[in-house]
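Summary: Need help interpreting a holo structure output

Steps to reproduce:
1. Submit the protein chain below together with the SMILES for flavin-adenine dinucleotide.
2. Request a joint structure prediction with the ligand placed.
3. Inspect the structure token block that comes back.

Expected: a single structure record containing both the chain and the bound molecule.
Actual: see attached output.

Input attached:
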Amino acid sequence: MTERQSTTTAGDTADVVILGAGPAGLLLGNLLQRGGVDCVVLERGTREHIQTRARAGFLAAHTVRILQRHGLADGLNRDGQDHSTCEFRSDDGRFRLDYSRLGQGERHTVYPQQALVSDLLAHYTDAGGRIRFTTDALDVRDTGTDRPTVTVRTADGRPGHWRARYVAGCDGRHGAARRSLPAHTVRHHLDHGVSWLGLLADAPPSLDAVGYGVHSRGFAGHMARTSTVTRYYLQCARDTRTDDWPDDRIWAELALRLRADAYGPLHQGRIGQRGVVHLESDVIEPLRHGSLFLAGDAASLISPSAAKGANLAVLEAELLAEALLDDLAHGDPAGLDTYSARCLDHIWRAQEFSHWMIGLLHGSPGTDGEARFRDSLRRSRISALRDSRAQQDWFAEHYVGVGALRAA
Ligand SMILES: Cc1cc2nc3c(=O)[nH]c(=O)nc-3n(C[C@H](O)[C@H](O)[C@H](O)COP(=O)(O)OP(=O)(O)OC[C@H]3O[C@@H](n4cnc5c(N)ncnc54)[C@H](O)[C@@H]3O)c2cc1C
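--- attached output ---
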């Protein structure tokens, strides 16, 4: 470590203050901690909140390799399930793609995000990593200097300040890092005009594949989480409320859109967590402002249509950790200088594929000329995917890949 770092002490000072204890913040914390960097993670929620927040589940092969490389994959090696098949069901019948036999031959590991977060948290704290729960970051100041300050409000309502050399904004889309960006920052934003009702059912998966139901009433998705829990999605009206969807209505609609009459019934069970997700995407450019860096959802929100968000978060956290370690431990700032451009390359590739998936899975509501046109495009995309090996290889490479990465 350089003299500069050794001057910082514990308490309200750290070389790197990390905002947010999601996959991005906790992976970054682990890698910095191991590299001997004095860091702290500030998390608005409680420990219980972050360990039970169900979101992602499909980890790309590259994500798994990163976690394995750093010895952080014991849980997913033990409990994760290999997944390599998806099934499309529509008016024109159904077909399956085994993407481990296509493209780069990669597969997913299904492992719930809350389990990954719990694993990363345990590794971090076991190694002595500092984390402050129920600490809300309010803003980041002086990012144009090498002594940025994070203003926080602690659990008991008292204000506080954390001073750092660098701040890593891993606090998601509504976090303090984004709020603290200069006015000239570019935010690319797209509202896809589609909403999903997301559900977690205490029921075993009903098929041994990701199920995509493409129906005139809207999209329905089936994704395994564990042997006893399944995630389902139903495309819904923008203004829908979860109260509008009693369990009977949900199971009837899922059965209809996934064509259970033709392809077999769905295993039903208690529906636990449910929420409405509006499919939006955005990208912040650049991802660095002086001593403030963005990673994960704070850097780019990506619609869950292609299950990329957690995978990008892990990729970016590793790149940022390497760059920070090079700078703090070896005085080499080159990685920090290129961090934004390297991430944006991956982010835009992932955004493009996610956007393509939205067009593949959703028709347009209405019967006017534009709706009919979009619906015909969707049918054409599905038939090309069913019939063209080249299209299937392209799909597989992007479906299981992370942005611009190819399998090694
Ligand atoms: C329904 C759904 C399904 C998804 N499925 C998949 C999938 O299958 N595969 C996939 O790759 N991705 C998926 N995603 C996306 C994935 O969950 C996110 O991209 C991922 O959580 C991003 O990780 P992160 O660490 O950047 O942010 P987060 O996981 O959001 O963590 C950010 C943390 O920052 C904290 N925070 C926020 N504001 C503050 C503040 N002011 N001060 C302190 N702390 C703060 C939050 O409490 C949170 O703990 C899905 C998302 C949704 C909504």
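--- end attachment ---

Reviewer comment: The CA atoms of residues 3 and 268 lie 61 Å apart. The chain has a mean pLDDT of 93.
Status: needs-info
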